[in-house]
C-alpha cells in the first residue's frame, strides 16, 4: 500500500485545479490587505507636504519682516507677492492635498505685530496620525 501511494505521488506532474484556486485566493487576499494598508498613504503624504509648505512661507515671511524695512501685507501669496519678488520664496506656494482642491489652492498669510501665520483651506497644523 505504501509503495502504491509513493508511486501515485511521484506521478503527479503539476498542480490540481483546487490547489491552483487556493493559491490564487491567497494572492488575492494578500493584495487586498496591501491595498487597504497603503491606500491612504498618498493623501497623508500630501497633507504633510502642505504643512511643510506653510511652514516655509511663515519662515520666509518672518525673515522678510526681520530684514526689510517695508511692511509685509497680509493676503494671498501669489507669484507677484513681495516674498516671491524679493527672493524669499522661489515661487508661489502650491497646496497638494486633494481635500484642499488640488494644486491651484492658494496660501494666505496674516501679519500681526511681527508675527506671521500662513494658512490654506483644509491644511490644519498639528493633525495627528491616524487621520
UniProtKB/TrEMBL annotation:
The lineage of its organism: Bacteria, Bacillati, Bacillota, Tissierellia, Tissierellales. It is a single-pass membrane protein. GO terms for cellular component: membrane. InterPro entries: N_methyl_site (IPR012902), Pilin-like (IPR045584). Keywords: Membrane, Methylation, Transmembrane, Transmembrane helix. It comes from the Bacteria. The chain crosses the membrane at residues 20-40. This is Type II secretion system protein G. It is found in: Membrane. PROSITE patterns: PROKAR_NTER_METHYL.
Amino acid at each position: 500500500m505504501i509503495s502504491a501511494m509513493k508511486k501515485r505521488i511521484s506521478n503527479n506532474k503539476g498542480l490540481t485545479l483546487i490547489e491552483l484556486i487556493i493559491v490564487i485566493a491567497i494572492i488575492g487576499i494578500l493584495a487586498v490587505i496591501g491595498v487597504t494598508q497603503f491606500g491612504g498613504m498618498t493623501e497623508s503624504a500630501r497633507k504633510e507636504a502642505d504643512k511643510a509648505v506653510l511652514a516655509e512661507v511663515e519662515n520666509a515671511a518672518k525673515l522678510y519682516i526681520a530684514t526689510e524695512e517695508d511692511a509685509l501685507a497680509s493676503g494671498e501669496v501669489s507669484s507677484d507677492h513681495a516674498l516671491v519678488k524679493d527672493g524669499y520664496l522661489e515661487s508661489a506656494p502650491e497646496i497638494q492635498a486633494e481635500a484642499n482642491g488640488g494644486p491651484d489652492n492658494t496660501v494666505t498669510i496674516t501679519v500681526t505685530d511681527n508675527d506671521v501665520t500662513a494658512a490654506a483651506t483644509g491644511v490644519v497644523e498639528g493633525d495627528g496620525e491616524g487621520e
